[in-house]
Design goal:
6-stranded mixed beta sheet, globular, 327 residues, single chain, Deoxyribonuclease I, Chain A, alpha+beta
Length: 327
């Protein structure tokens, strides 16, 4: 039986289910100006037990149900066997999302290990293939600091007798400024390369692996040294398969601040796997993007959106990227 797998990466954007232990928020304030909470009624508590969580809609004003329906639709569209996810609150949240929103398309296996992010946005996995082994790298340090902003989650699979290692990442964002935060992504890139060397030896490109995730940076020809992920993208032991697409079709994220399109989401496939699949193109699913990605007086970036995309609604601000590989 042929060993084949479709693997994807997707930043699901704030896949949260936040607990609220304070009780029900009222419309009154105390003498110090703080909102007053009352205890939950038996009916409210029963509903919380039935649903599994209590959503504090005063903290999260948008209804999660329609948003997560779009997120689920986007994941189903790429038809992946393994999905590496970013921005997942915890394993319980992922299980609930898998059960309640993916439904008939739900995955058999889910994995999240709480990482380093103080917003509790972790990396995780959805898979229909059993996970043979899992390892966290959240404790790797650069000097006194933890290297990975979240984690580099390592998972090993056996697909019809062929091994595959997957490394799920979510590098430090550019929110503080690309140049100011670059050093963090440089350290994270170097750490990923070292993990590969430790796992497979100096000629690690001969093995079956995929580095995936939201790496929160990009490269521009002639300005390569401005990127924090240059070491990964220029490694001769892996291939950024999105480079196989036309230059204007590689973007996975639209930044409304400067109306720019960039590839922030990556599938970096080992040289051995890339060679075995040299004519295979990746798929970037953009139908879950917000309407704002189509700018006025310019050709449409997305020609067709999922039903339910309207106003500011979206499946995520990132696009999932998927590829089918023979091992």
């Amino acid at each position: 039986m042929a060993a084949q797998v479709t693997i994807a990466t997707f930043n699901a954007e704030n896949l949260f289910t936040r607990y609220n232990f304070k009780g029900k928020k009222t419309n009154q304030k105390d003498a110090k100006g703080k909102w007053i909470y009352r205890p939950y009624t038996p009916v409210e508590l029963a509903k919380a037990v039935r649903d599994g969580f209590i959503h504090d809609t005063n903290l999260f004003k948008k209804s999660m149900k329609p948003i997560r329906g779009l997120t689920a639709k986007t994941i189903r569209a790429v038809k992946a066997d393994i999905v590496g996810l970013q921005e997942v609150e915890n394993l319980d949240t992922l299980k609930k999302f898998n059960r309640d929103h993916l439904k008939s398309g739900k995955f058999k296996y889910q994995m999240v290990i709480d990482g380093n992010d103080n917003r509790y946005i972790d990396v995780g996995l959805l898979s229909n293939i059993p996970i043979d082994a899992i390892r966290t790298h959240q404790f790797v340090r650069t000097g006194r600091s933890k290297t990975f902003a979240r984690d580099c989650l390592e998972a090993h699979f056996n697909i019809n007798g062929k091994p595959l290692a997957v490394f799920v990442n979510h590098f430090t964002s550019m929110m503080r400024g690309r140049s100011k935060s670059k050093y963090r992504r440089v350290g994270q890139s170097e750490a990923v390369l070292q993990i590969l060397k430790d796992r497979f030896g100096s000629n690690f490109g001969k093995e079956n692996f995929v580095i995936l995730g939201d790496l929160n940076d990009y490269m521009v020809a002639g300005k390569e040294n401005e990127s924090g992920i240059q070491a990964l993208l220029e490694s001769n032991q892996m291939v950024n398969v999105v480079d196989r697409l036309a230059a204007d079709d590689r973007w996975t994220h639209y930044y409304k601040g400067d109306k720019s399109y960039h590839q922030l989401d990556y599938l970096l496939v080992s040289s051995a796997l890339a060679q075995k699949n040299k004519n295979v193109l990746p798929v970037i699913e953009r139908r879950g993007q917000p309407l704002r990605v189509n700018q006025k007086n310019k050709p449409p970036a997305v020609k067709k959106f999922f039903p339910g995309i309207k106003g500011k609604s979206k499946a995520s601000d990132h696009c999932p990227v998927a590829i089918t590989l023979k091992l």
